[in-house]
């Protein structure tokens, strides 16, 4: 599924639109994401930190879990943006845990990850590029099929 330029710009706009909701009092590193479903819907998310640290959630997973909890599981792309304590925007690659969650729901050869500094300054990567040889549901399916043969 080729991502149209207008949709890419829309995802970048939507991600920046929710950056103000990022709850990052500890790291002061705000992250926001806009997730596009294959049916054309957009789910946004932000990072949500916690005084006990480990319960915190990344922006990408917030967006993915919002979508899954509303019945959406087929995703085409996600845009990630960030703002540091000085107000600077840089490319923000997804953490390893978020890459693994993407692997659960997305085709690594098709799912596009956009890292944007602004609407005209971005990078686009496939999940397969950011998580080579990823372990996903397909690996367990092979296992189950093999078990059935035995
Ligand atoms: N963060 C994200 O939201 N997404 C990422 O992929 C990288 C890290 C958040 C987690 C934490 O709230 C803050 O950025 C600093 O690590």
Q: Report the major sheet.
A: 5 strands, mixed
In the CATH hierarchy, what is the superfamily? Cytidine Deaminase, domain 2
What spatial order of strands do you see in the largest sheet? Answer: 2-1-3-4-5
Rg value: 16 Å
* Percent in helix: 25-40%
Q: Structural class of the secondary elements? A: alpha+beta
Name every ligand kind in the structure: tetrahydrodeoxyuridine
CATH names the topology as Cytidine Deaminase, domain 2
**How many discrete structural domains?**
1
How would you describe the shape? globular
Mean pLDDT: 95
Amount of beta strand: 15-25%
Uncertain runs: none
Structure notes:
This protein is of the alpha+beta class. It has one domain: Cytidine Deaminase, domain 2 (3-Layer(aba) Sandwich), CATH 3.40.140.10. Helices cover 33% and strands 23% of the residues. The protein contains 5 helices and 5 strands; from the N terminus they run αββαβαββαα. The chain has helices at 5-17, 59-68, 96-105, 127-130, 137-149, and strands at residues 30-37, 42-46, 75-83, 112-118, 121-126. Strands 2-1-3-4-5 form a 5-stranded mixed beta sheet, sandwiched between helices. The N and C termini lie far apart (38 Å). The model has no long low-confidence stretch (mean pLDDT 95). The protein binds tetrahydrodeoxyuridine.
């Amino acid at each position: 599924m080729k991502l149209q330029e207008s949709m890419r710009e829309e995802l970048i706009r939507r991600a920046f639109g929710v950056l103000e909701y990022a709850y990052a009092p500890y790291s002061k590193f705000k992250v926001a994401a806009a997730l596009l479903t294959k049916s054309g819907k957009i789910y946004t998310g932000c990072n949500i930190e916690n005084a006990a640290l480990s319960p915190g959630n990344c922006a990408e997973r917030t967006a993915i879990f919002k979508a899954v909890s509303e019945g959406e599981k087929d995703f085409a792309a996600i845009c990630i943006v960030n703002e540091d304590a000085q107000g600077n925007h840089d490319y923000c690659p997804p953490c390893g845990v978020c890459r693994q969650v993407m692997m659960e729901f997305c085709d690594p050869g098709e799912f596009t990850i956009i890292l944007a500094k602004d609407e005209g300054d971005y990078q686009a990567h496939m999940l397969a590029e950011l998580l080579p040889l990823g372990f996903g549901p397909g690996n367990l399916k092979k296992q189950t099929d093999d078990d059935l043969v035995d």
